[in-house]
Design brief:
The structure is a single chain. By secondary structure, this protein is mostly helical. The chain has two domains: about 140 residues, Serine Threonine Protein Phosphatase 5, Tetratricopeptide repeat, CATH 1.25.40; about 100 residues, no CATH class. Helices cover about 65% and strands about 0% of the residues. It is built from 15 helices and no strands. Helix 9 packs antiparallel against helix 10.
């Protein structure tokens, strides 16, 4: 389950209303499918009370239940331009379209979509995932690059490695190889205390060095003072960069857990 999808706390006030108590109870019991079914029944029995926000809640419940088709239907109803959660509903439709194998449609809807800062990262990840699925390498790289902060934590370091892999695939330009090399070194420093991720970063570093022209490779083989400082500080940062217990945001671009 993508982490952003799993956060349904914004709908808690609705679950406390008498008409939605059964929905909240089903969620508490770990039954999102039953919760979605109950909410759909309430909304169908009182269509005059239906709002874009309630449709978004329904879509998110269907999404958690693993029913992308119903999630798409509900979230599309929530994409009213004037609705306060319009951007959230658009991301919901994008996720559902991707889950249904309709990446081109997802990319069309998500590209250039204005989003608030709170969901800018998720938006970038979804665009990158959709662009990669459609073979649009340039947009996939640009969108994923926008989600990489200056200071890497565990999740952003993993994304940095995915971006490095993307940059090295195909016939990369020298500037792309250099960027991949820098990303792999930054990620290796952030993940220094964890063998498998660090080895992945170091493997990408060697792959990038091998792809550079010899004269450039010799320059990058000698580490800069900044590289050395990052490696020296890595053991102290590692405590803060332990792998999170929750799943990575949107599961892109790595394996997604079964729902």
């Amino acid at each position: 389950m993508p982490a952003f999808v799993d956060q349904l706390t914004e709908f808690v006030p609705f679950a406390r209303e008498p008409r939605f108590l059964a929905v909240g109870e089903a969620l508490d019991q770990g039954s999102p499918h039953r919760a979605a079914t109950l909410l759909a029944n309430v909304l169908e029995s009182a269509p005059e009370e239906r709002t874009p926000t309630l449709d978004l809640w329904l879509g998110r419940l269907w999404e958690r239940a693993g029913d992308a088709a119903r999630a798409l239907e509900a979230c599309e109803r929530a994409t009213v331009t004037t609705a306060p959660l319009h951007a959230y509903a658009m991301l919901c439709t994008g996720r559902a379209l991707l889950d249904l194998g309709r990446a081109a449609e997802a990319l069309e809807r998500l590209w250039n979509l204005p989003v608030p800062p709170a969901i800018a990262e998720e938006h970038g990840l979804l665009v990158a995932r959709a662009a990669q699925a459609t073979g649009d390498r340039a947009r996939a790289i640009a969108s994923l690059r926008d989600t990489i902060p200056e200071e890497l934590d565990w999740e952003s370091a993993d994304r940095a490695l995915s971006l490095a892999e993307m940059l090295l695939d195909g016939s990369p330009a020298t500037t792309e190889v250099e960027e991949a090399l820098r990303l792999s070194r930054r990620a290796a420093a952030a993940m220094a205390a964890h063998d498998a991720p660090r080895q992945r970063a170091e493997s990408l570093e060697q792959r990038a060095l091998a792809a550079l022209p010899p004269e450039l490779a010799s320059v990058y083989t000698t580490r800069t003072p900044g590289d050395r400082r990052a490696r020296a500080a890595a053991p102290f940062r590692a405590r803060a960069n332990r792998p999170p217990k929750r799943e990575a945001a949107d599961g892109f671009p790595g394996p997604r857990r079964a729902r």
